[in-house]
Known about the structure:
7 strands, 4 helices, 187 residues, Hypothetical upf0131 protein ytfp, globular
Amino acid sequence: MSLVFQYGSNCNAARLNDAERLAGAAIERGRAETIDEYDIVFDVWSQKNGCAASDLILMPGTGRHAWGALYDVPDDRLRGNRADGVKTLEQIEGPRYQERTIRVRDPENKEIEAVTFLVRPADRRSNLWTSVDYVRHIVKGLRLNDAPEEYVQHVIDVAIETNRQSATAAEEQTRLIVGLRATDFSQ
Length: 187
């Protein structure tokens, strides 16, 4: 078994363990908090979700720690491709994520190491938007794991700000595209 920390939509155990994902293979261990200072962002486009998905960014000096859920995941469901076609967590997360080991504080307040998946730096993007359905999974998972409500509200605030920035970028790009109407390219 591997200890896995999930901070995004998979902190909702029902989502992680549904038939299209780990099909009940993940065993819930409760909430966890990162030891190092991380903040949640929505900086990678997810084709499966049709919106920006979550990531954790190391943010030293901020005092912010990310919360999520711990699971025991069978080693043969963690990485690689299985001959029987059953999905592994690595496949569920997709190629834009990379496996990392991070330190977290478990429900008994012990510092332990856990596997998580973070977005590859080259795949991080700005001006993306996320969806209510995706964020709902995060909020539900955090609340069902008794994460601090202050952190839950922070996740919601980050999602709202992500979408506001995306709208601003879209408005600016639209203005620039409209400007092409009067652009003379002959010179």
